[in-house]
Amino acid sequence: MSTVRRTLLLAVLVAAAGGLAFATGAAVVDGPADTFAEERLAVQPVDGPNGAYAYLNDDDEIVVDVSGSNPKLPSDFEGVNPGTLASADGVFTITYTADEYARVWIEHPEENVTFVVDGESIEGEANNVTLAPDETVAIGLEVDARGAVAGTQLSGDDFDIRAQVADPESVDSASTADEGDGDGGD
């Protein structure tokens, strides 16, 4: 199993003003990327509005920062509004470049922040997403600031991206189960 710890500067500085943009995006591995697992996984900010919430630091590691201190955000951005649920699709991508299938998931301790794919959590092994060779998935965020007071920092934790090669049999059986009962609709 491959693991990498990345910075979640989700120093979501809850402010009285500001908010998240709502858009989607995707990226391919054609520029700088945070690579690991013998370069079989590449992580990049999305090339789109929500990609501004993520950037590669000086060590080429992905940083997710939804605060006023993020250098990619406008200087008047102050964070997530207190008392709100905010979401941003397509903040960064994970691309799998090996020849097998892989299960990928994220682990981190913060309860106020959830990493999602198509609105579904990918936190913990049970919520993994299976990637085929050369497949990319866009990761988004959901932030719960309902109990926060203006100026509160919700998190400053690291997060782990984990990957495990999937057994071909389990990938095939999952695909068959998704296709229905196989009776052709009769």
Provide keyphrases for this structure.
single chain; 186 residues; six-stranded antiparallel sheet; 12 strands; 6% helix; disordered C terminus
Topology:
Layout: E1 2-8, E2 34-36, E3 41-45, E4 54-56, E5 62-64, E6 85-96, E7 102-107, E8 113-117, E9 120-121, E10 129-131, E11 135-144, E12 158-165, H1 168-178
Parallel strand pairs: 1-5
Antiparallel strand pairs: 1-12, 2-3, 3-6, 4-5, 6-11, 7-10, 7-12, 8-9, 8-11
Summarize the structure.
With 186 residues, the protein is mainly β. 6% of the residues lie in helices and 36% in strands.
What this model shows, in words?
This protein has 186 residues and is mostly beta strands. It has one domain (2-173). Helix content is 6%, strand content 36%. It contains 1 helix and 12 strands, in the order ββββββββββββα. It has one helix spanning 168-178, and strands at residues 2-8, 34-36, 41-45, 54-56, 62-64, 85-96, 102-107, 113-117, 120-121, 129-131, 135-144, 158-165.
